[in-house]
Amino acid sequence: MTQRQTLQAALIQQRCTGNPADNLARATAAVEQAATDGARLVVLQELFNTTYFCQTENPACFELAEPVPGPATTALGRLAARLGVVIVAPLFERRAPGLYHNSAAVLDSDGRLAGIYRKMHIPDDPGYYEKFYFTPGDGIWRPIRTRVGHLGVLICWDQWFPEAARLMTLAGADILLYPTAIGWDPGEAPAERTRQQEAWLTVQRAHAIANSLPLLCCNRTGFEPVPGGNVESGIEFWGSSFACGPQGEMLAQAPAGDEAVLMVTLDLGRTEEVRRSWPFLRDRRIDSYGELTARWRD
Amino acid sequence: MTQRQTLQAALIQQRCTGNPADNLARATAAVEQAATDGARLVVLQELFNTTYFCQTENPACFELAEPVPGPATTALGRLAARLGVVIVAPLFERRAPGLYHNSAAVLDSDGRLAGIYRKMHIPDDPGYYEKFYFTPGDGIWRPIRTRVGHLGVLICWDQWFPEAARLMTLAGADILLYPTAIGWDPGEAPAERTRQQEAWLTVQRAHAIANSLPLLCCNRTGFEPVPGGNVESGIEFWGSSFACGPQGEMLAQAPAGDEAVLMVTLDLGRTEEVRRSWPFLRDRRIDSYGELTARWRD
After folding, report:
1. B292/A161 CB distance under 8 A
2. Closest by Cβ to B170, choosing from A161, A278, A294
3. Closest Cβ opposite residue A163 in set B123, B292, B295
4. Which candidate, A258, A171, A195, A262, places its Cα nearest to that of A223?
């Protein structure tokens, strides 16, 4: 018989200020609320304790990076142990002098650092100058083992790449998790806004479907102006954090423009049930996938 | 400047009867209508000239297979040349004595057989006993070159595998095409029906998004009883053929329960435009994808 195992999770969708200590304090309060409400897994958004500083290329922003373990993860480790929750904490990591990553530290419910994921796919387009700041991850697509399961932690831009979700799945992920920081250019036409947000939602739901896994996506909210830009220019982060099940079915979704502690109950036993009906893993044509490592099949 | 190139396409969504000649005649009439309405590319559904005989395992059904080139593709080649349209014709192929495929022949607009795709991922679950009938394809994920573009033809179960869409993309597909035959078990609960159909739609839209390609999906409609079963058992094919653009945006959709000649205009220039905004192909981590050829990453 399929094992029935449910997991209460919470997604912390927040606005960020220019004060990391303030962002950490408000995240801490939200984690406490989530734990009180029964969450055993709490997911923070990408770069949770800073603004999205990648809107410009400014060498001074490297000062925002911190080591792991370091002040934020030590504080969150204590919080995790006190509350008995697993915390996914994405932040700007200083790995070595001059070597920085867009990372997610995972604190297990005993406070221990369970593992770290370093963002593998790094975007770079106007307003999202990430290639300046973040060295691409050198990990091997392994889920992070915690007391609530094997967490397939990925970050933002990774969400557009089916390869990432598949590799986490094949390594035994129980859940796919995407902390993100995505939003609209205020000058964007309404139809384009809709297409972008729908695409973002759809591609992630599809990873859940193709891999028969539940998925949690925690996105930033609020408007952040371009440092030194005019008052209208910046990013309007679209929030809309969500959870879906292994058939891509929506389980919960936060609003676009407000902060939220989004609670959801995941039925981890559904994965094997769904895979028995739709056995995609059985039928993958691994004999024919070799050229997925090609840049282009000329 | 991005090349603007539009293409009128038509999806022929039909009910099938036990009479292949009747199915071919009705498909022919629908192709004629589509051409009259301006289509230059016409897509038929999976196994277009037979019922979905895979509801049981019956050796007599191998008699339904025909060679390519053979009677149906010869007739459709003449039709393609007469109307000046490209036709995607999925059918049960007899490749050699005892060697059968679930294939799609593509007839170019001069009537020539442009190429053939043989379904790579073969399902097998109650009511869809395809592994009995169909030898898995031995192709190499190459789009078929035609006068209207490079067609990334895949078939039904392939639609659940992001690997297939990606490999067609990397080999230069201009459009992803999915002839399908999927439906509900009449005994299925309404909530499960919704989840299944939504998953089917979502996963395909996501292939369009992840690869920045337009996508055409042509599905069968109508109820087909299980041969020799009681009157209620069978498959209620859910139609709902659709077209979406390179951001997964829906362009057109047919009803669930009726036949349709679904017309859509594709803007092939949008692919490069979208890829410039969301350059996924630039950022794929091909150095790290090697284990996509693993069955499981133990």
Report:
1. no
2. A294
3. B292
4. A258
Question: Structurally, how many domains does chain B consist of?
Answer: 1
Instruction: Say yes or no for a CB contact (<8 Å) between B160 and A291.
Output: no
Q: Determine whether the interchain pair A163/B166 forms a contact, defined as Cβ–Cβ distance below 8 Å.
A: yes
Active site residue B119: yes
* Residue A175 placed within a domain: yes
Question: How many C-beta neighbours within 10 Å does residue A276 have?
Answer: 12
Each residue's pLDDT, cut to its tens digit, for chain A (298 residues) gives 344 599 999 999 999 999 999 999 999 999 999 999 999 999 999 999 999 999 999 999 999 999 999 999 999 999 999 999 999 999 999 999 999 999 999 999 999 999 999 999 999 999 999 999 999 999 999 999 999 999 999 999 999 999 999 999 999 999 999 999 999 999 999 999 999 999 999 999 999 999 999 999 999 999 999 988 777 899 999 999 999 999 999 999 999 999 999 999 999 999 999 999 999 999 999 999 999 999 999 9
ipTM of this model? 0.97
**Cβ contacts (< 8 Å) between A280 and chain B: which residues?**
160-161
Of the candidates A215, A185, A218, the one whose C-alpha atom is nearest the C-alpha of residue A203 is: A215
- pTM (2 d.p.): 0.97
User: Does residue B20 fall inside a structural domain?
Assistant: yes
- Contact at CB, B160 and A210, closer than 8 angstroms: yes
Residue carrying structure tokens 């007391």: A147
Catalytic residue list contains B32: no
Q: Do B166 and A120 touch (CB under 8 A)?
A: no
Upper half-sphere CA count for residue A49 (Cβ side, 13 Å): 25
Q: What whole-number distance in Å separates Cα of residue A20 and Cα of residue A16?
A: 8
Q: Which of B16, B54, B61, B156 is catalytic?
A: B156
Q: How far is A108 from chain B (nearest CA, A)?
A: 23
Which residues, including other chains, have CB under 8 Å from residue A194's CB and lie 6 or more apart? none
Min distance B295 CA to chain A CA atoms (Å): 7
Is residue A1 in a domain? no
To the query of whether residue B131 is one of the catalytic residues in this protein, the response is no
Chain A contacts in chain B segment 215-274 (CB below 8 A): 247-249
Residue A193, domain CATH: 3.60.110.10
Judge contact between B160 and B128, C-beta under 8 A. no
Instruction: Report the C-alpha gap between A136 and A153 in whole angstroms.
Output: 15
Could you tell me the residue range of the domain that residue B83 belongs to? 6-293
Pairwise CB contact (< 8 Å): B163 & A289: yes
B157: in domain: yes
Crossing angle of the two packed helices A190-211 and B190-211, in degrees rounded to 10 = 110
